From TrEMBL:
PANTHER family: MITOCHONDRIAL DISTRIBUTION REGULATOR MISATO, PROTEIN MISATO HOMOLOG 1. It comes from the Eukaryota. GO terms for cellular component: mitochondrion. This is MSTO1 protein. GO terms for biological process: mitochondrion organization. Signal peptide: none annotated.
Amino acid sequence: VAAAWASVPFPAPRGSSLPDTLCAYQEDVPWKLLSSCREQKVSCCFAQSVVLRGVCKERKQPTSPLHACESTEQVLQHYLHTVFPGAFSTSHVLEQPCNTLPPYPQFFSPLLTRQGFLLDRHPSRSSAAVESIPVLAALRSSPVLHTLLYSLYKDLQKLNTRRWASFFAAGVEWDDFQEALQGLRTLSQCYEMGSEEDESEDEADSD
């Protein structure tokens, strides 16, 4: 199971390199969880696949281990290993940005250039339409999946199945439904990080 994360657009300031941008996010990551579940403050990840497009490394005098990397792929991979030590991480970098020409909706901030990079100050006049943006997307297996899967299990458990007679009349057996429900709970426990909160909730429900 994996959860989707993304940064649209990727927050790269105009004229800065990828190492410059990532160095500003040593304590956090520049992408957000796409699920409605609340993100966890503690950074932890079991495995992840990350794709970045539209951001170049640019050759500059090395000022950090990230700047010393020879390629954009190495920069991103080094960053992932630093922020998520011990996690299995794969990364891919594409030079082409994502095009945002019509009919792509123009919901971007005026602080973006036409190429989707951040301006260092507010423009004196309304900026032109954003034509392309750098984007980062990630599929990650992390403890947040415990919360996502367990919440789904709790929601399904609360269903009043008597109101869903047509659902079971379509061929779903009650025992199979209950087995799938317990399987969902077991799956959520695979991503648990030693919390006993959910177990206590189950005991309270049974009482």
